[in-house]
Amino acid sequence: MSPRIVKLKVLDARIPTTNSRKMEVLTEYNNRIKGYKGEKSLEFYLDPLIQSKDYHVFHEIRLLSGKYYFQIDFLILCHKFALALEVKKRSRDWYFDEFNQAYLLFDGAKEKIQNPVAQAKLQSKKLKQWLDEHQCEEVPIHYLFVNSHEKSKITCEDGNDQFKNMCNSEALIDKIELIEKFYKEEKLTRQDVRKIKRLLLTKHTPDDPDILKYFNFTPKDLLPGVQCPKCDSLPMKYHYGVWTCLHCKEKSKTAHIKAIEDYFLLIKPSITNSELRHFLQIDSIKSANNILKSLNLPYIGNRKGRVYYRPTTPICKRDHSEIAKWQIKLRSGK
């Protein structure tokens, strides 16, 4: 799941219902989680390629071309070609008219939407340009729109010439085999494929925005406090090392971990004792200090000037060797 989706979910939980833009956050989260689920459901059909040594499958590869980034839902690479997939999971049927316009059908009505075949074609052109910029000019690039909803169907009107670039998920492997049969010989050497694979992984930049800035929020717009792991209420009350939900009376000794991770995701990747106390809604400097020490976060500075930093992996999954490496990097200024 992309960092953007994770941040949207956390942001939605911490924006009060009285905020007029809360629905905007929730709508974007719902749209993106639908897209993620559609891509996730395609993994079943891509599994033969994932298990094969002849294919390399990249999910949500995001690359910079010129001034702008472009992202491909799935990119398939082999010795003969590259294939860009645009994946959509909609519960309505698809309809493409003779002018290559796309519609969703519902109860006899048509809703015009962006053409996913055109989107796939654009992404393939951007990929071609990107590969040319990196001296990989000989890669044949194909594109497909894949409908990943099992109950929706695709209909093309006579005269539409895009039908060859679309399919349902269960027909994806057949489409790929047809493309493969088109080439009588391999276009890329093993060394070429290794070079492209290395380039893609090195240049990939995950979609990880400053989500507060994206929606024009500030930290003051967020609901502070520790969220109840049972009923999601905010805030829980802290007393002698135990968090208690004021709504459902659930008790927890570790509920603050998610709250601190929320802070790192939404506000900034560092935190002080004072900032922790404000965000967790506790008064005691000593209690805040004990919480920070118990998490073994990497830090710089001493006593009042100490600043703790977000680790590279979730707090609950880190080990002491990683913490030691972070300490060395922070103290050396790297």
Tally of helical runs: 10
Helix content estimate: 25-40%
What coarse outline follows from CA principal-axis ratios? elongated
Please report the total strand number as a whole number: 15
Listing every helix as H and every strand as E from the N terminus to the C terminus, the arrangement reads HHEEEEEEHEEEHHHEEEHEHHEEH
What's the end-to-end separation, in Å? 29 Å
CATH architecture of the largest domain: 3-Layer(aba) Sandwich
Number of domains: 2
Strand order of the largest sheet: 1-2-3-7-9
In terms of DSSP E residues, the strand content is 15-25%
CATH level-1 class of the largest domain: Alpha Beta
User: What Rg is obtained from the alpha carbons, in whole angstroms?
Assistant: 24 Å
Low-pLDDT parts are: 318-331
Mean pLDDT: 91
Structural class: alpha+beta
| CATH structural fold name of the largest domain | Trna Endonuclease, Chain: A, domain 1
* Main sheet specs: 5 strands, mixed
